């Protein structure tokens, strides 16, 4: 399949002036697959009303069919077609955080969306992205768009056009190049089918941020890695680079210089650079141990990068302390490393 590339970066103010905008609209309406930028990661979009289009998403990604998709919308009015259960609390959170990096799982009203979107569940995840290009595309196409992250299943999510191209060129109808995703981690997924709500996948909208809007609205314990996770997607191996990678804790002195560090990469905050052996590869994760925003933004780019670089055989990834705002990145890092730890004190 020939994958079309549309570079719309200089049409960000008004996407309707992009010469090939009608092609994009038409392909979505005819059941094609087009990757589009969002503020979290790129999504692989298809018409959520069209079973055949949604089937192609699973095929292109190699995704297990029991893993449901998030439906992307541009206006709250679209929700009445396919969801129920928008309580005052849910509405308040939507008003507060949308458009933005949070998805809400709601009871599904059957008969409107095609059945494959929800993977056989009676609930549906929805999100209204804030990305200026992604949002305009959704407005213009004016369909509910099912969109998982635009990567091959099991690979790190794409935060740049190049990442999408690498995984999906030749497998989908087109890719909209809309620059680098600002957030860099997938949206928070909040299960609102019962109260208190449950965080099914942590993201940059944190528990504290949600509870600042509605106190005590999040169920106390959430186990993202249990056998029966709320989000089916959380049970699959995910986000993993090909290069062996370990989570690095207790990195507080220079390792032993007798070892061969040449083909090893240390992915750490700049404040810890002085501990990195001079013959090792240093990759800057963020400014300091508090700079979670930059680490979120860069993580997937770095995971892609270490696979592309042929001077790295093994990587050590700095582990953050457990806090409200590190829940998302630690969740992804644990998956990327398959929970393999290495202790800085023993290096
Ligand atoms: O930021 C994002 O959410 C990106 C962009 C493109 O919007 N999308 C994304 O989609 O990350 P995906 O398909 O890679 O991840 C969706 C997650 C999966 O873990 C899935 O199992 C879960 O949401 N999910 C979707 N619908 C669900 C439902 N009805 N109940 C429970 N979990 C659900
Ligand atoms: Mg994904």
Structural description of this entry:
The chain has 2 domains: 4-213, DHBP synthase (Alpha-Beta Complex); 245-346, Threonylcarbamoyl-AMP synthase, C-terminal domain (Rossmann fold, 3-Layer(aba) Sandwich), CATH 3.40.50. The chain is built from 8 helices and 15 strands. The longest helix has 17 residues, at 292-308. It is an alpha/beta fold. The protein is globular and about 65 Å long. It has a 10-stranded mixed sheet, with helices on both faces. Residues 148-149, 157 line the site of magnesium ion.
Blueprint of the fold:
Blueprint: E1 4-7, H1 21-29, E2 34-36, E3 43-47, H2 51-61, E4 70-72, H3 88-97, E5 102-107, E6 123-127, H4 132-141, E7 145-146, H5 161-168, E8 174-177, E9 188-191, E10 198-201, H6 207-213, E11 245-249, E12 264-268, E13 281-284, H7 292-308, E14 314-318, H8 327-336, E15 341-343
Parallel strand pairs: 1-8, 2-8, 4-6, 5-9, 11-14, 11-15, 12-13, 12-14
Antiparallel strand pairs: 2-3, 3-7, 4-7, 5-6, 9-10
The structure holds threonylcarbamoyladenylate and magnesium ion (MG).
Magnesium ion binds at residues 148-149, 157.
